[in-house]
Amino acid sequence: xxxxxTDITNPSIAITEIxxxxxxxxxxxDFKNEDFExxxxxxxxxxxxxxxxxxxxxxxxxxxxxxxxxxxxxxxKTTGEIKRVKVxxx
Length: 90
Hints:
Immunoglobulin-like; five-stranded antiparallel beta sheet
């Protein structure tokens, strides 16, 4: 699994592993050892597509129900800290 995801507010910090990116179907998210509480997906216009409980240590998301484009998985830690990553769906 390649570490392709970065915190878009601080691009030098890898926050999770995402495979594959770009995605064409199922997106795998490995939370490493970070304690995330929720996972949301926003589209490129900032519209909330889904919000669900983060499932550790690994979660899968099916992008096949979305239109192609840019998406932002948003991860919220139990401390309230928010991390947002960039994913391309094609």
